[in-house]
Design goal:
The chain is of the alpha/beta class and 251 residues long. The protein is built from 8 helices and 13 strands. The chain is globular and about 65 Å long. The two termini are 26 Å apart.
């Protein structure tokens, strides 16, 4: 068994012990929650945060808390709080931190996002045979420079290449203007994608898909190569197989 697989199985089989540990400390957890949320302090708004799976718990907890208490609450990724504190304009009011609306309701922040992306190089790649895939996670940012701060949630970072299939025939690529300045003469142009580029973009859709990948022609020969080696991924250690769907066809 591969090392990565061993770690995965270990995590899976340790979950009962983890759940039991939580159950054993529920009384202390309830005391802490009562002290924080139902003490003398009054909150105008609360943020629940987490990473990965715990982010889903944070979002669910925020919704439940807001429903039962009437206090506004939201779930926010830890990375957004860490990398983009400017998104949450903390101010002091009655001694408690107060946060503005969510990012997608903050007009000033939205305009900063829009300006940062609009400043970059936009190229529309065309597949004459309508071979571009899409997925349930279609927008992908591929970094070309290591250890770069992902500005604006990675959508406008230095050395970034943002790709988004608009249709089976057209794929939008937004390049960081500073790093890809040689592409400036192609800004806002439609160019024909090579077969190699179509394959590269389709692989990005596959790598970042949560569960589903879609093809207009139900053509997934590209993925036959991925599992050619006894069902193992030939590009990375992948233990899960994304479900490929096109119309009524499944891969």
């Amino acid at each position: 068994m591969k090392k990565n697989s061993e770690l995965t199985y270990k995590e899976m089989y340790q979950q009962p012990a983890s759940f039991q540990a939580v159950n054993d400390t529920l009384e202390d957890i309830f005391k802490t929650l009562d002290k924080v949320f139902f003490g003398e302090k009054k909150y105008d708004e609360l943020i629940f945060t987490g990473c990965g799976t715990s982010l889903y718990l944070a979002q669910a907890s925020a919704a439940a808390f807001s429903t039962y208490t009437g206090i506004p609450a939201k779930g926010v990724p830890c990375s957004e709080l860490y990398y983009f504190p400017e998104t949450y304009d903390f101010v002091e009011e009655k001694g408690n931190p107060v946060l503005p609306d969510l990012t997608y309701l903050n007009n000033d922040m939205l305009m900063k996002f829009a300006d940062a992306i609009a400043h970059n190089i936009w190229i529309f790649q065309v597949s004459r045979n309508a071979d571009f895939y899409t997925s349930d996670f279609p927008i992908v940012v591929k970094p070309h420079v290591l250890n770069v701060r992902p500005m604006y949630m990675g959508l406008a970072q230095y050395g970034g290449e943002l790709t988004y299939p608009l249709s089976p025939s057209i794929l939008l690529t937004v390049y960081d203007r500073e790093y890809f300045n040689s592409l400036g003469d192609k800004d806002c142009m439609f160019i024909e994608a090579t077969d190699k580029e179509v394959r590269r973009q389709n692989m990005l859709r596959y790598f970042y898909a949560k569960r589903h990948v879609f093809s207009l022609h139900n053509d997934y020969r590209l993925f036959d190569r991925i599992y050619a080696n006894e069902g193992h991924h030939i590009f990375c250690n992948c233990n899960l197989k994304t479900e490929i769907i096109s119309g009524f066809g499944r891969y």
